[in-house]
Amino acid sequence: RLVIPSTSFANSTRKDHSGVVDRVIKLDHGDPTMYERFWRQMGDRSTIVIPGWASMSYFSDGSSICWFLEPEFAKEVVRLHNVVGNAVTQGRHVVVGTGSSQLILAALYALSSPDALEPITVLSAVPYYSSYPSMVDYQKSGLYKWGGDAESFDKEVPYIELVTSPNNPDGYSRQTVVNRNQGLLIHDLAYYWPQYTPIVSASDYDLTLFTLSKSTGHAGMRIGWALVKDREVAKKMTKFIELNTIGVSKDSQLRAAKVLKTISDSSQDEESFFKYSYKIMEQRWKLLRAVVESGDLFSLPKFTSAFCTFFNQELEPQPAFAWLKCEGDIEDCESFLRGHKILTRGGRAFGDSPKYVRLSLLDTDENFMLLLDRLSTIQH
Ligand code: PMP
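That is the input. Now the predicted structure with 4'-deoxy-4'-aminopyridoxal-5'-phosphate docked in place:
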């Protein structure tokens, strides 16, 4: 059994007769509460004050295609990409969205054609991000429809492929799999940040999505951004957001600008944001692998290392989620773990086998340690 320091349970709730905490732990969402400690430590360095009279207009920047984009936010987005080296920003239009969720829909709208005879097919390789199918189909759009696994797509029709790299749920780096000349691509790079994966080169695609939710951990701010090569596509995405929410909260954009600025300003410090978060992810993966490898009930993906241009060394991926497989005769890993009060998302939601589950590794220290303790108990 893993020995867990008692301080990690300081505020925990119910305990069973043997003194072990027995509450349900919810790891089925990728809620990035892990980052709160860092931002508390930053104190006023990431605080902004917004007076009552500020940010009142709908409009932000008349000179930008994206007229509701706050210039300060756009500036900090470009600066952070230059600091991290994870995306080419030259020759790109920045489009801000209410989370990258809104930008996924904006991109589907922009890439589809109102004159097409059939809705365009939207694909992603299994295991894909579990929200894609419902995001694509919930409005029964006449413009686009969910087509499932990109690996098994063999129809000679136009398509949009969602390429998620590193991938949610399994953490592997990905490229397009359909690879046809006329294929339209959306690169969802929510996790292409140094704490999760080696930054091997600056991404240089037509339409790339990022989000504050996974980069800095500010999911509640609801800010994402797209880097878009084609002017007409950027215009159509802006139009979608105009029709959908008449822009994106200025207060959130200003706050996001400050958070990104804090990261860039301190990027060379000993306790920089990426060093701090890299160390936590490294520690968590080490502990998780040790527990999983101590028995034969579970297994985890194996990754190869690559040279990270940000940290200037050879590093292994350490994804935000663990794509855990139940070995042996456990067919439904999600129900099995639910029986042990661990809530996860089962493989079927990602188009894959129920032998897999996705576990969030971005939760609080307390929940993570509780997870380790439970997995360890189950195995022994
Ligand atoms: N894409 C991927 C791959 C994600 O994992 C998420 C969040 N779970 C999103 C998009 C949406 O993120 P948000 O709307 O919070 O920016």
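Residues 66 and 159 are 26 Å apart (CA to CA).
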